Amino acid sequence: xxxxxxxxxxxxxxxxxxxxxxxxxxxxxxxxxxxxxxxxxxxxxxxxxxxxxxxxxxxxxxxxxxxxxxxxxxxxxxxxxxxxxxxxxxxxxxxxxxxxxxxxxxxxxxxxxxxxxxxxxxxxxxxxxxxxxxxxxxxxxxxxxxxxxxxxxxxxxxxxxxxxxxxxxxxxxxxxxxxxxxxxxxxxxxxxxxxxxxxxxxxxxxxxxxxxxxxxxxxxxxxxxxxxxxxxxxxxxxxxxxxxxxxxxxxxxxxxxxxxxxxxxxxxxxxxxxxxxxxxxxxxxxxxxxxxxxxxxxxxxxxxxxxxxxxxxxxxxxxxxxxxxxxxxxxxxxxxxxxxxxxxxxxxxxxxxxxxx
Length: 357
Ligand SMILES: NC(=O)c1ccc[n+]([C@@H]2O[C@H](COP(=O)([O-])OP(=O)(O)OC[C@H]3O[C@@H](n4cnc5c(N)ncnc54)[C@H](O)[C@@H]3O)[C@@H](O)[C@H]2O)c1
Known about the structure:
By secondary structure, this protein is α/β, with parallel strands linked by helices. The protein contains twelve helices and 14 strands. The protein has helices at about 15-25, 40-45, 50-60, 75-85, 95-100, 105-125, 180-195, 225-235, 255-265, 285-295, 320-325, 335-355, and strands at about 5-10, 30-35, 65, 85-90, 130-135, 150, 155-160, 205-210, 210, 240, 250-255, 270-275, 285, 305. The strands form four sheets. It has a seven-stranded parallel beta sheet with strand order 3-2-1-4-5-8-12, sandwiched between helices. β1 (about 5-10), α1 (about 15-25) and β2 form a beta-alpha-beta unit. α6 (about 105-125) runs parallel beside α7 (about 180-195) and α10 (about 285-295) crosses α12. The longest helix has 22 residues, at about 105-125. It starts with 5 loop residues before the first strand and ends with a helix.
């Protein structure tokens, strides 16, 4: 029997938002998506999400799209009041730390103030609905770079055995370089925690590692694996910034993010915080990722090495998933790195072809 539950998803044409739409719609939910395609404004044609919105509209029956800017406070308040969702998944963002320095007001208005608009709308319209905020590991700034490292042939690696599982939620948040994006997301992250702790609302911050999947509008400034696959496929020159290309990222498929959101919905907590990436098993360095995707796609990438790392960039970042797994033992990573690479190599061709059609 169809469920009458309703979810409000912001950033619904983006990578995580669109996966959230299909995940919950496919389980009988009514889905209200909010997206104004600001990703195109941020990243140009590569970031245009129109293709993804059209895909969603063509493949779902209980999805309603709202072309709305989350900076529009009154519109956000009215939307939540009208639909009173059972769950809010807030994915809309300016997601690039490199871009934030060129657009500091847009970055803060979207990431921090936009989140406040949504929190207030939830407090007044649906205070009992779990509120999921897609935060980021950039809230830790470059503090994770304090962990001692060793240089291996293709990657940086933690030197101490106690760091094996990666960065936990106890990592410090201040006295480090965040980039303006890290600062605006941290402001939002603290607000989301506060609405949980102060008002007792069921809120959670999911501090993402690298999110990935075939529905990312991969742009040079955002979308690591998706853009890399695109560069290899389309023979675009690709720049590596610093750390000898051995910087490590942990990659989590959008589906596994949604499965965690579902687990939180079923058993919400107040003011919760989790690191959510692919963990050690899904960690890969740039050099390793290039080699894997080149092999999968069958092209060679033309790489330009820039001997200057991005400001605040992590050298080795692996999300410690133990807290998430201990609080939600039914949840785990379903998409291995092999599966992710395979999908990006194969499905990406279809997605990008239909995007141009
Ligand atoms: N992709 C990653 O690797 C990653 C890592 C850590 C955290 N995150 C966070 O997860 C969330 C989702 O990331 P994603 O990769 O799906 O991003 P995305 O850029 O693919 O999707 C975000 C969507 O939000 C929309 N948007 C932006 N500003 C808006 C506004 N003012 N009003 C309405 N819609 C707006 C964009 O058009 C876009 O479709 C973001 O909050 C991001 O900061 C992402």
